[in-house]
Every structure is written in structure tokens, then in C-alpha cells.
Design goal:
The complex is a heterodimer.
Chain A (H helix, E strand, L loop, with lengths): L2 H27 L3 H26 L2 H33 L13
Chain B lengths: L1 H19 L3 H21 L3 H24 L6 H15 L1 H16 L16 H8 L1 H22 L8
Helix pairs in contact in B: 1-2, 2-3, 6-7
Classes of the chains: A mainly alpha, B mainly alpha.
Chain lengths: 106, 164
């Protein structure tokens, strides 16, 4: 890898790791299911930027773009379905708190 | 490089705002801002097609899904919000600290990225790759989108039994 690309990868990599930590922390610490979904979305953002960066650094821009387009499509389907599931849970339990889902416990 | 750095800092701050915002609606808006900044970063990294997808789908569609889903739930009262935000602050103030420590550690360690580069594909057109090289994936995506749309219709419909 060229020295210029290594520097670019290192700088972007630091911010991507920060984004990843924010998303992971959000999923682990929150009790609100909708906010956990926002955390999942932030995690996906980090992966998207990483894929584009890898494509840019290695010179496989077209392939990276096609992978990212697939990722975005799957992401939106996952988010929409999960939002629907969360709304169904909300209609049953009248709460968005994940600690209230105890029906299948044990 | 300076513009890239400003954009990266903006992206991180917007993501932090999305995680730490008191109301869910503000968190959804912060997420849209993060997506918009990611779009500009993608343009800077010479990926216009993926950037357009990111802008239209992540900034537009996903924000619309979030806002509609949040509007279908009952918001907290003012007193509940204040009580929750105190508790939330206690749980979330570690996050910026952890992020800064991780960034400083990565910066100081200077981990060498020395992996062998993959072979550069001969095709350099996204449309060519999507419709010729990854033909089977495209069919899979079409099925996935159909499954997603049916799932949304079933999950978001109003229940007739309880009249809600």
C-alpha cells in the first residue's frame, strides 16, 4: 500500500472505530428498543464507510460501491421489519422498554 | 485532507448526538444528519452511486420510517423525560470518554496496516458488476425487497380485533 493511502486509512480508521463504539455502546446500554435500532443503524454506517474506504484504498471502487448498495438495501429492509416488530411489541406491552418482554423467559 | 477531517469530526459528533439525545425524535434527526455527512464523505472518496443511495435511502426513507414508528408510540410526559434523562446521563457519560480513549490509543499505537492488496477487478463499472458479475445477488435482493414490503404491510397494519 502506498504511504499516502496508509495515512488515509489510519485517519479514517480511527473515526470508524469511534462510530462503531458509539453504536455498540448504544445497543448494549439502552433499554429503549427504538434507540437500540438507532444504535444498529450507526453500526451499519461505520461498516459502510469502512467498505467505501477499503475500495478507495485498494482501487476496487466499483466493486465496493456495488457491495455498499446491497448493504444499504438489506439495511433498510432490516430496519423497516424491526420497526414493525417493535411496534407490535409496543401494542402488546404498551412499553418500549426491553425489560418488559418477559413472556418467553425461561 | 482538512475537509475530510472536518467531515469525520462532524460525523462522529452527529452519531454521539444520536446516541445521547433526550428525545427519540431528535435522535432520529441526528441519525439523518450522520447519514448526510456520510454521503459527503462517500462523494469525497469517489463513490457517487453509493452516495446517492445513502442519501435517498438512509437520510430519507429510514428517517421517515423512524419518525412514523416513533409517532405511533406514546411520548413520555415532561416529568418522566426529566427523570429518565438524569438516569440516562449517568449511564451514557462514559461513552465520549471511551471514544476519546479508543481514538487516542489507536493514534498512539500506530498499528501498521500491511495486508496484501486484493486483485483489482478488470471491470470498473458499477452497473456492469451488479448486473453481470453479481447477477444472482441481484435476484436475491429483489426477493428481499418483496419480503420486506410484505412484512411491513403485515406488521404496520392496524389490528381489527381490538378496534385500535
Amino acid at each position: 500500500m502506498e504511504a499516502n493511502n496508509i495515512q488515509l486509512f489510519s485517519i479514517f480508521g480511527i473515526f470508524i472505530v469511534m462510530l462503531f463504539i458509539a453504536g455498540l455502546y448504544c445497543i448494549l446500554m439502552t433499554r429503549n428498543m427504538m434507540r437500540a435500532l438507532i444504535g444498529l443503524e450507526i453500526l451499519t454506517k461505520a461498516v459502510t464507510v469502512l467498505l467505501i474506504l477499503a475500495g478507495y484504498v485498494t482501487g476496487n471502487m466499483a466493486f465496493a460501491q456495488s457491495i455498499v448498495i446491497t448493504l444499504i438495501i438489506i439495511e433498510v429492509v432490516v430496519i423497516a421489519i424491526t420497526a414493525g416488530v417493535i411496534l407490535s411489541i409496543y401494542r402488546h406491552t404498551n412499553s418500549l422498554d426491553r425489560s418488559t418482554i418477559r413472556d418467553l423467559k425461561g | 485532507m482538512t475537509i475530510d477531517l472536518i467531515l469525520l469530526v462532524m460525523m462522529t459528533i452527529a452519531a454521539l448526538w444520536a446516541v445521547m439525545a433526550r428525545s427519540l425524535l431528535k435522535a432520529a434527526i441526528a441519525l439523518a444528519v450522520t447519514s448526510a455527512v456520510v454521503t459527503i464523505i462517500m462523494f469525497r472518496l469517489a463513490s457517487p452511486l453509493a452516495a446517492v443511495f445513502e442519501l435517498s435511502v438512509c437520510t430519507g426513507l429510514i428517517t421517515a420510517i423512524f419518525v412514523s414508528a416513533i409517532s405511533l408510540t406514546r411520548p413520555l410526559t415532561h416529568a418522566q423525560t426529566i427523570a429518565m434523562s438524569k438516569n440516562k446521563f449517568r449511564r451514557y457519560w462514559y461513552l465520549p470518554v471511551i471514544m476519546v480513549i479508543a481514538a487516542a490509543a489507536l493514534f498512539l499505537l500506530k498499528i501498521k496496516v500491511d495486508v496484501p492488496l486484493p486483485q483489482v477487478l478488470a471491470i470498473d463499472d458499477v452497473r456492469n458488476i451488479m448486473w453481470n458479475l453479481r447477477q444472482l445477488d441481484m435476484y436475491g435482493q429483489i426477493v428481499l425487497i418483496l419480503a420486506g414490503s410484505f412484512g411491513i404491510v403485515i406488521l404496520f397494519r392496524e389490528s381489527d380485533k381490538d378496534g385500535s
